[in-house]
Backbone:
């Protein structure tokens, strides 16, 4: 399944601090958000793996989630370290904390965006190679969603 | 009040992130309130609470900078653990 160009554009805006990112996010319908979140997860996977490595313990995932939450709170952004951890747990194939209570899709978008901003602000290659990052995420998304 | 037990995974996750549960002292008969707080050095922050009344658990989460309002309720649950998870998945701010 290919990724809609507008979802790629939205993540590009997020990485490049283009103010359109907020408007595009708010314009997502519930159905759009589900597909957008699917792509956002692959972007997070592409960014997180070089940072945390191919294997990661639950303690390391929790520590990373706290680090992301602390940086976002300094910027007065709404953030939830448990949802951030749920996303990275999902990426690393760890058991989910919220297995019985669904994570609201908007919370997934917020937490995913927090991870992207956190890594973008610390790893200059993300902005310098935004097209490569997005292409890698798109490729991973296609691979994961092959029929 | 005695705080209801929760599963190991939730308990471990709360501890890893520096969160804990605090029961409100002297609840009225048949009622209970458990606050979800974050210890950060000298500072204690609050991200929501779970109320027990009329036989069910009600989850309230902090979703604005200052405090929790009655409209910040996130459902009614038969179990304390489900209500606690609802707080943990829905809060966006610490107060």
Residues:
């Amino acid at each position: 399944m290919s990724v809609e160009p507008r979802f790629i554009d939205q993540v590009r805006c997020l990485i490049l601090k283009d103010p359109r990112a907020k408007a595009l996010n708010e314009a997502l319908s519930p159905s759009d958000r589900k597909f957008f979140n699917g792509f956002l997860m692959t972007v997070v996977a592409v960014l997180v793996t070089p940072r945390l490595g191919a294997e990661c313990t639950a303690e390391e995932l929790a520590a990373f989630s706290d680090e992301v939450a602390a940086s976002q709170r300094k910027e007065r952004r709404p953030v939830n370290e448990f949802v951030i951890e749920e996303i990275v747990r999902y990426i690393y194939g760890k058991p989910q904390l919220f297995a019985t209570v669904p994570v609201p899709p908007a919370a997934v978008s917020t937490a995913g965006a927090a991870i992207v901003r956190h890594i973008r602000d610390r790893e200059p290659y993300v902005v310098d190679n935004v097209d490569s990052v997005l292409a890698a995420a798109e490729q991973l998304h296609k691979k994961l969603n092959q029929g | 009040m005695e705080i209801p037990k929760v599963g190991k995974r939730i308990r471990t996750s709360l501890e890893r992130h520096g969160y804990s549960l605090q029961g409100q002292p002297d609840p009225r008969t048949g009622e209970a309130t458990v606050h979800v707080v974050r210890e950060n050095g000298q500072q204690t922050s609050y991200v929501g609470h779970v109320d027990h009344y009329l036989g069910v658990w009600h989850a309230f989460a902090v979703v604005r900078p200052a405090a929790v309002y009655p409209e910040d309720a996130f459902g009614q649950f038969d179990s304390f653990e489900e209500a606690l998870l609802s707080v943990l998945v829905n809060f966006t701010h610490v107060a």
